[in-house]
Amino acid sequence: MIRYARRLALGAACLLLVGCSSTTNGETVPGGTRAADPRASGSSEEPTTSGGKADPTARIKGVLSLKYKAGQHVKSPQRVAYDHTPPLGGPHDQLWAPCNGVVYKKAVRTENVVHSLEHGAVWLTYDPKKVKDADLATLVKKVDGQPYSVLSPYPGQPTAVSVQAWGRQVQVDGVDDPRIDQFITATRGNPDLAPEAGARCDEADPEAFSQDNPPPFDPTPPGPDAVPVGGGS
After folding, report:
1. What's the alpha-carbon Rg for the chain, to the nearest Å?
2. Fewer CB atoms inside 10 Å of the end CB: C or N, the chain?
């Protein structure tokens, strides 16, 4: 009885002061309240970029965020074994694809466009079997004539529309998804995301990559000689 009374007294004292610790899912939380997740709705905190600034894509639902080493170049026709479809970073061709509001009607060589991402471009891709006519026109309006923007079909991608910037990607099922515009605004030319933001995005070598007749997309899986995402020179 005396021990029981002592436990009651200690419990009351604990409540009168700052609250006792409790355990939730194996974690001890002061006062019995779990700390709020900074990614939860309504929080003012966001993940930060390498420059210490808030990541503007953190509040866009479904954004994939990865880190890639910059400046890793390959030379055509060398392939890269990218880790995502479409890719959002990694080794790339030494020559970028023109990306100042360019709309490619046919799928183009992936390795060149990834270099454009390094320069700060946003790459909109679509599955040509799912996006046609009026839907395609909606995407064209988002890119045509806009700096650091490029649009091309990407056969076999997992969703109707995918949007890539260096180290960031969001994939959606329709052209009217508001996340497309949100993502473009957050990433296009952003120096906190793209390693070489502001670098050239015009046509540099028409003989190697002509905007009007670009090297074609290769739909076959990369062979054993493909450069891994962690490779390049």
Report:
1. 24
2. N
Q: If DSSP codes are grouped into helix, strand and coil, which group holds residue 102?
A: strand
- Taking only the tens place, the pLDDT of each residue in 14-32 is 333 333 333 333 322 223 3
- Give ∠ CA 142-216-138 in degrees, rounded to 5: 15
Of 148, 154, 153, 151, nearest in space to 186 by CA: 148
In the structure encoding, which two tokens stand for residue 51, read together?
């420059």
98 burial type by CB count under 10 A (0-12 exposed, 13-18 middle, 19+ buried): buried
- Extract the tokens encoding 135: 């839907």
**Any idea where the domains of the chain sit in the sequence?**
2-32, 64-228
Confidence of residue 51 (pLDDT cuts 50, 70, 90): low
Interval 189-210 mean pLDDT: 95
* Residue 113, phi then psi, degrees to nearest 5: -70, -30
Token readout for 14 is 């604990």
